[in-house]
Design goal:
By secondary structure, the chain is an alpha+beta fold. The chain contains two helices and three strands, in the order E-E-H-E-H. Strand 1 and strand 2 form a beta hairpin.
């Protein structure tokens, strides 16, 4: 299960990729910001540790109501 873990620059949410995304594809031309690579993981436990280390998950923007 090797996955690359990224933070979305707009929502703060986390997304995964099977392949490393080149930096030029992480950059947003509209706002000048970038998605951030947080690391890579081979297990669910490693992935969760990286997500936790980068501040957890933001569910805003995921179609869920915010409180």
């Amino acid at each position: 299960m090797h996955k690359y873990i990224y933070s979305n620059h707009l929502s703060g949410g986390v997304f995964f990729s099977d392949e490393k995304i080149p930096e030029e594809y992480l950059f947003c031309d509209q706002c000048g910001d970038s998605n951030q690579e947080n690391g890579e993981a081979d297990t669910f436990s490693e992935a969760w540790q990286l997500i936790y280390a980068y501040g957890g998950l933001s569910l805003n923007g995921a179609g869920l109501p915010s409180n």
